[in-house]
Amino acid sequence: MRLEITTPEKNVFSGEVDLVTLPGKEGQFQILKDHAPMVSTLATGELVYEISGKKESITVEGGVVQVQNNKVLVLAEGVI
């Protein structure tokens, strides 16, 4: 699935990933391929994505995430 992470200042990441773990306002949650469409708010915390078994992480400062048609769009207020 495609992951795009962007802030008001810049595009942080764009690429194909196997899974994404996000810091939701109500706790962490994970997105896998073929996830149902959804929109959620994000808290400040660690966003982790995995590509071929290798994990990468970015700390986001809140924002929103939209999931639709195997595309995960993260609109973060900022990244640390």
UniProtKB/TrEMBL annotation:
Q: Which GO terms fall under molecular function for this chain's record?
A: proton-transporting ATP synthase activity, rotational mechanism
What does the UniProt keyword field contain?
ATP synthesis, CF(1), Ion transport, Membrane, Transport
Q: Does the keyword Transport apply?
A: yes
The source's domain of life comes to: Bacteria
- Residues of the ATP synthase F1 complex delta/epsilon subunit N-terminal domain: 1-77
As for subcellular location, the record says: Endomembrane system
Against CDD domains, the record matches this protein to: F1-ATPase_delta (cd12152)
Q: Which InterPro entries match?
A: ATP_synth_F1_dsu/esu (IPR001469), ATP_synth_F1_dsu/esu_N (IPR020546), ATPsynth_dsu/esu_N (IPR036771)
SUPFAM superfamilies from the entry?
Epsilon subunit of F1F0-ATP synthase N-terminal domain
Name of a matching Pfam family: ATP-synt_DE_N
Query: According to its record, how does it sit in the membrane?
Result: Peripheral membrane protein
Main site of residence? membrane
Q: Which GO terms describe its cellular component?
A: endomembrane system; proton-transporting ATP synthase complex
Free-text function comment from the UniProt entry: Produces ATP from ADP in the presence of a proton gradient across the membrane.
Q: Subunit details for this protein?
A: F-type ATPases have 2 components, CF(1) - the catalytic core - and CF(0) - the membrane proton channel. CF(1) has five subunits: alpha(3), beta(3), gamma(1), delta(1), epsilon(1). CF(0) has three main subunits: a, b and c.
Q: Which family does it belong to?
A: Belongs to the ATPase epsilon chain family.
Q: What is this protein called?
A: ATP synthase F1 subcomplex epsilon subunit
Supply the source organism for this entry: Leadbetterella byssophila (strain DSM 17132 / JCM 16389 / KACC 11308 / NBRC 106382 / 4M15)
Taxonomic path: Bacteria, Pseudomonadati, Bacteroidota, Cytophagia, Cytophagales
